[in-house]
Design brief:
This protein has 6 helices and 8 strands; from the N terminus they run βαβαβααββββααβ.
């Protein structure tokens, strides 16, 4: 049964809580699988990187695993008429991602693609899950999405963490993100309202209840 943590819980308290929760788990497979999910702009990357570091400080071997290496290539998306919606559920190799997560859960070493934002493309073979890695901290928008094929992931997660953000706050974060990438205000607004916010609505309305939910 999921639990909602108090609004405004500071980062240190969140990390302490999560490290304690993960430390109490016993893997059913080769390694523990911790999923950090939520809409774009919710802080998933920051929290998952911090969690992996905190777990290592606590004596575990943990590795951060981003989902974005499974973006379909721009040329594929353009041919399908989906380039403007890059980041939506159908613009990923979802089946390939599910297969890769099964491999991480069960195999000694797994090689994964990573996403290079400066090139806007995936780079093959850049992430190595080593045999000594005990815990994979996986981060991505759709890790708790309760629609096929994404919902096949639910059986793989030992702990799910969901970041829920007020829509108005999320909108401002997304606009700031795109402006930070060098986009003019009008283009930043188009990207946020035309793609990111619809994706966020899908995530917020169609995700299964996580073990832990933080609200900002």
């Amino acid at each position: 049964m999921g639990s909602k943590l108090p609004d405004g819980l500071d980062t240190e308290a969140r990390l302490c809580d999560l490290v304690e929760r993960v430390g109490a788990l016993r893997p059913a497979r080769r390694r523990l699988m911790v999923a950090v999910a939520g809409p774009p702009g919710s802080g998933k990357t920051t929290l998952s990187l911090q969690l992996a570091a905190a777990l290592r400080e606590a004596g575990h071997t943990a590795q951060h695993v981003p989902m974005d290496g499974f973006h379909l290539d721009n040329a594929v998306l353009e041919a399908r008429g989906s380039l403007a919606r890059k980041g939506a559920p159908h613009t990923y190799d979802a089946a390939g991602f599910v297969h890769a997560m099964r491999r991480i859960a069960e195999e000694d070493e797994v090689i994964l693609p990573d996403f290079d934002r400066s090139l806007e493309k995936s780079i093959a073979g850049r992430i190595v899950i080593r045999p000594e890695t005990e815990i994979a901290v996986i981060e991505g928008n759709y890790l708790c999405l309760d629609v096929p094929p994404w919902n096949a992931l639910q059986a793989l997660w030992d702990l799910t963490v969901f970041l829920r953000v007020d829509p108005a706050v999320l909108r401002e974060r997304l606009l700031e993100r795109w402006r930070g990438f060098g986009y003019a205000p009008a283009e930043a607004l188009r990207k946020a309202e035309g793609n990111d916010l619809p994706n966020a609505e899908t995530i917020l309305s169609q995700s299964f209840a996580a073990d832990v939910t933080y609200e900002d």
